[in-house]
Specification:
CATH class of the largest domain in chain A: Alpha Beta
Oligomer: heterodimer
Distance between the termini of chain B: 41 Å
Number of strands of chain B: 15
Radius of gyration of chain B: 19 Å
Largest interface: A-B, 46 and 51 residues
Largest sheet of chain B: 9 strands, mixed
Number of helices of chain B: 10
Helix content of chain A: 25-40%
Number of helices of chain A: 19
Order of helices and strands of chain B: HEEHEHEHEEHEHEEEHEEEEHHEH
Strand content of chain A: 5-15%
Strand content of chain B: 15-25%
Structural class of chain B: alpha/beta
Distance between the termini of chain A: 54 Å
CATH architecture of the largest domain in chain A: Alpha-Beta Complex
Shape of chain A: elongated
Strand order of the largest sheet of chain A: 3-2-1-4-7
Strand order of the largest sheet of chain B: 1-4-3-2-5-11-7-14-6
Number of domains of chain A: 2
């Protein structure tokens, strides 16, 4: 089996030479296309870098000034194929690579794979009318309208011209019997097929059509291959592993991606960061020493589980963590990221809750603070469980943003269910905060019906009761299930009430682990 | 039209001020010819920080910074000798007032416009060390390339004040030493973020400064948000140190739909030499708000404050900062 590699490169000669060195073995040939726009003298550099023996297997194609998304990309590839045509040798396969690709499997394994699979064409070939291939962007417009300008230079003008043509009803037809197919630029094709493509590519009509399409490199080869080769001989996948993000940008691989790349069932990977020297070193070692002992690949496939997991977790930020520089509701502060449940005992000013707190703190993994949001010092009420960054005598730190203080306190007590007492009205935003916070469980402690005294109404008591009822009504409106306890005559809670509260709190989950 | 006028109204004064104060700078160590087209540059304003420079250079060279541009505000500790013949350091000297140059901002804007346009530029103090997602295996240039590919011209960071276990006066630092050996601790919680209207920047306050030096008036505590890495264009300008950049869009840490990576700046202010520095700065009154900050620092130092608490966290790696919610990876795989 004899292979020829075509490498399209526009800069970074160092990594290009490294790739060439990696690819060249005794029979194979490498044809490099170096972008005409880059004035660097690649021929001289290659002459200096490689010995005569290597140089004899290395060719440089006629340079074309390559512009992304335009016909010049195809022209550069065709120029390499012409270079191959001129040599007397016959190759079984031609593999198209770019300067930022790198092999992830030995070339010998690639040859074995190609021989075992038989006479197949490795090119992505997708019929845009039947299935979606482009993540985001133009599909049919790429070839049904005329394109004279580059989207990268004039994105607005580009869109305007496309929509204008659509309004005018311009719809180009492909020449002859061709049917449009799309696919990645990176392919591996047999030499007889490529010869036919070269011949077709010389036809004026075909050149004229494709040179006015958008991103013809993803259109020209798939379309011609689909027309020239029977469907069953086309494996709709290249030999190169690549992936595009949801935003349509190619993934770049860095030094820490070795494990991810090695998992891929493909022979090359793209694109490697130019600085990823470590990754290239490790891949070299892997190819030379480890890969030979591994099972050969039977089918080409992408192993994207790691990447998809990463995106699923990361695209909104980690669960339960603050996101720096993002806030949905400024009112909640950083508490909006909190996923740790907590409970709040909302009571009227005179309630005596020490017995309830003691009962709760006696339970395992529950920690019920005192009135932490009240007054000129932070009343933790739990010796040894103060937050070290919020000293008791520095309430200003707490008051700068109370929800943040609560969030920090919850995270400092990891693994415990935290609660505190809030006397209503409390005079700050925490009153409403806890009612609307989905993580808060509320326990209301009402005064006894003492406002109906024997001879007159006890207004003080009536107001307290009213405020409690208002807040309870609001909590119900939000859809919160809360516990309602009524204090005894002397403002304390009955044993039955305490038992009810502890039973309710004891059933609460302690929150997700994060 | 209105847009253009608004732009000019802001851009012209900034340009003129930068040019006026840029005239105070004298190029004493000119290596700017070594700057190549796509280099990552670092801009630093300093005064008497020679002790920190060897490790600073090491650290950022390792991260892939190609050239350093220093503004030396009249140092007298042999700063130029420390730089020596390094081919990647250019130095400008000035005796002009730091305060009048808006705490160095006009000098920076001048140099950034002149040398930084078209480059990815880091603007740092010599006591700030950048940590970003994957910083142990990916260079600043790779970060910059990623941001560029995603169409994000700036990179947002949060400053983490680092401190040692004992008193500040005991945190002795030797030239060339990794400051993490002396000050590995920081506050993992107790931060507060808030978006401000004028420039749309995220105003982050908290950490050890707020907790110790501004505990009674936390609203006065200094900002910790910094946009240090920017793909500079000629009309960009820093407004207040690196806390605020103009135009406004550079202050947005994220994309409109999803998250972008953000970083942390490890800030090693509280070393033993800090007392000397605070005393000097208080004398010179060249810092923001009549050096109020330094007044408080000195009071704190005289009270023999220990910055360490049982809630302090020892810095481990960038991953650690992500776990604590101080840094985002965004969707950078």
């Amino acid at each position: 089996m004899k292979l020829a590699f075509i490498i399209l490169a526009h800069d970074d000669a160092e990594n290009l030479f490294r790739l060439i060195k990696r690819l060249l073995s005794k029979d194979d040939l490498v044809v490099v296309h170096w972008d005409k726009k880059n004035p660097y003298d690649i021929l001289a550099a290659a002459h200096e870098k490689f010995e005569a023996k290597t140089r004899s297997r290395l060719r440089f194609a006629r340079p074309v000034a390559v512009e992304w998304g335009r016909w010049s990309m195809v022209e550069a590839t065709l120029s390499c194929l012409e270079e191959l045509e001129q040599s007397v040798e016959v190759f079984d396969y031609v593999v198209l690579l770019s300067g930022v690709d790198y092999p992830v499997k030995p070339i010998s394994a690639l040859k074995a794979f190609l021989a075992q699979q038989g006479d197949k064409e490795y090119i992505e070939c997708v019929d845009p009318e039947h299935s979606a291939w482009v993540v985001d962007g133009l599909v049919q417009e790429r070839y049904q309208q005329y394109h004279w300008i580059n989207w990268r230079d004039h994105p607005k003008l580009f869109s305007f011209i496309v929509s204008l043509q659509k309004k005018l009803g311009i719809k180009r037809k492909l020449p002859g019997q061709l049917k449009a197919h799309l696919g990645s630029q990176w392919w591996a094709l047999t030499w007889p097929t490529l010869q036919k493509i070269l011949q077709m590519g010389r036809r004026r009509k075909i050149r004229a059509f494709f040179s006015r399409t958008w991103v013809p490199d993803e259109l020209f080869f798939p379309t011609l291959v689909a027309a020239l080769v029977p469907r069953k001989r086309i494996v709709s996948s290249g030999l190169t592993f690549y992936h595009f993000s949801h935003q349509g940008r190619p993934l770049v691989f860095y030094n820490d991606h070795f494990d991810f790349l090695v998992k891929q069932e493909a022979f090359f990977a793209r694109k490697l960061s130019p600085q990823a020297t470590d990754l290239r070193d490790r891949l070299d070692y892997f190819i030379d020493n480890v890969a030979l002992a591994l099972q050969p690949i039977n089918a080409l496939s992408k192993q994207l589980a790691d990447y998809e997991h990463f995106i699923a977790v990361q695209w909104r930020g980690l669960p339960g963590r603050r996101i720096i520089g993002r806030q949905v509701d400024a009112w909640y502060g950083d508490l909006e990221w909190n996923k740790l449940p907590y409970f709040v005992i909302l009571c009227y000013p005179g309630a005596r809750l020490e017995p309830l707190r003691e009962a709760l703190n006696a339970m395992p993994n529950i920690c019920c603070y005192g009135e932490i949001f009240r007054g000129g010092h932070i009343d933790y009420g739990l010796p040894g469980r103060e937050h070290p960054l919020y000293p008791e005598n520095k309430p200003a730190l707490r008051d700068m943003k109370r929800p943040n203080f609560l969030g920090d306190l919850l995270h400092a007590n990891h693994g415990r269910l935290v609660g505190f007492i809030l006397r209503l009205p409390c005079g700050n935003e925490m009153e409403k905060m806890v009612i609307y916070d989905p993580q808060a469980t509320l326990i209301f402690v009402f005064p006894d019906d003492r406002y109906l005294a024997a001879n007159a109404i006890n207004w003080q008591c009536a107001f307290e009761s009213m405020i409690m009822h208002d807040n309870l009504a609001e909590a119900r409106r939000v859809g919160k299930q809360s516990v309602m306890l009524v204090a005894l005559d002397d403002d304390s809670l009955s044993l039955a009430s305490i038992a009810q509260a502890t039973a309710h709190i004891g059933c609460l989950p302690a929150g997700i682990a994060c | 039209m209105q847009k253009i006028l608004r732009f000019l109204k802001k851009a012209i004064p900034l340009y003129l001020k930068a040019r006026r104060h840029g005239g105070d700078l004298v190029l004493v160590n000119d290596r700017t010819t070594h700057i190549k087209a796509d280099d990552v540059l670092a801009f630093v304003v300093l005064r008497n920080e020679a002790v920190r420079i060897p490790y600073f250079l090491d650290y950022y060279r390792k991260l892939g910074v190609n050239h350093f541009l220093f503004v030396d505000n009249d140092s007298n500790d042999g700063f130029l000798d420390v730089i020596g013949a390094a081919s990647d350091c250019s130095v400008w000297h000035t005796c002009a007032s730091y305060k009048e140059a808006k705490y160095g901002v006009y000098w920076l804007n001048y140099l950034l416009r002149r040398y930084g346009s078209g480059h990815w530029c880091l603007t740092l103090d010599p006591d700030e060390f950048l940590v970003y997602p994957y910083c142990h295996s990916r260079s600043v240039r790779e970060l910059a390339q990623y941001l560029e590919q995603e169409g994000k011209p700036s990179f947002f960071t949060v400053m983490l004040d680092m401190y040692g276990e004992g008193l500040v006066d005991e945190a002795l630092y030797k030239p060339g030493q990794d400051p993490l050996e002396v000050c590995p601790w920081f506050d993992a919680s107790g931060y507060f973020q808030d978006r401000r209207p004028n420039y749309g920047e995220w105003w982050i306050r908290g950490g050890v400064r707020r907790r110790v030096f501004f505990a009674d008036q936390p609203d006065l505590s200094p900002a910790l948000n910094k946009t240090v890495l920017v793909k500079w264009r000629w009309y960009y300008a820093y407004i207040a140190s690196t806390h605020i950049v103009w135009p406004k869009r550079l202050n947005n840490p994220h994309f409109s739909d999803t998250l972008a990576p953000t970083g942390c700046l490890l800030h090693f202010k509280y070393l033993a030499a800090f007392r000397e520095k605070a005393e000097e700065e208080l004398e010179r009154k060249q810092h923001y708000a009549g050096s109020l900050e330094y007044d408080r620092y000195l009071t704190g130092l005289n009270d023999n404050l220990c910055l360490w608490t049982s809630a302090s966290v020892r810095f481990q790696s960038w991953q650690h900062c992500v776990d604590l919610g101080l840094m985002n990876i965004g969707r950078w795989f």
